[in-house]
Amino acid sequence: MVEFSVEADPTLTDRLSQDELVAFVVETLSDERSWRSQGVGFRLVDDGGEFTITVASPDRVDQLCRPLRTNGYFSCATNGWVALNIERWFGAIENWPADLETYRRYLINHEVGHYILPPGHPGCPGAGELAPVMMQQTKGLNGCRANGWVSPGSRPVPSSPLRQLPR
Q: What's this model's pTM, rounded to 2 decimal places?
C-alpha cells in the first residue's frame, strides 16, 4: 500500500482549494483506470507517506524538483514530491486537444507512475492511438490521442475513496 499526502501550495489558496485538490487526487487514484489496474493500492495520510502531491507555483516546482530542470513549465516526481505546476493544472499545454480534466488525470497518473515504475518515457505507439500515460504528453502528442489513464479500457469506479474526506 503506497501512502501519500496532498497539499495545495499555501500561497495559491486564492486559486486552488485544498479540499477540491484532495478530492480530485483521491478520485483519480481510486479509479480502476489508474494504477489500481496494475495492482497498486494507495492510502491517503494527513502528512508524509512515500510522497506528497502538491500543486505549486512554477518557482516552487523548480525548487522541489531540483536537480531536475522543470524550467518553470514542467512537473516532476522526485525527492518525496509529486510537484505539479499550477500553470499546467489550470491551463494544460498549448493546443491540448482534450478537456482539462483529462490533462489533470494525466499529470497525477504520470508523475505518480515515476514512483511505481522504472525510469523512462515511452513514445507514441502510432498515429491515432491513445498516448501511454507515461509518455511525456506535456511535450506533445506526436500523433497520439490525449490520455489521462494507465488502463483507459477499465471501468471507472463510481465511488471508492481511499479514506473518507472531510465535508
A: 0.91
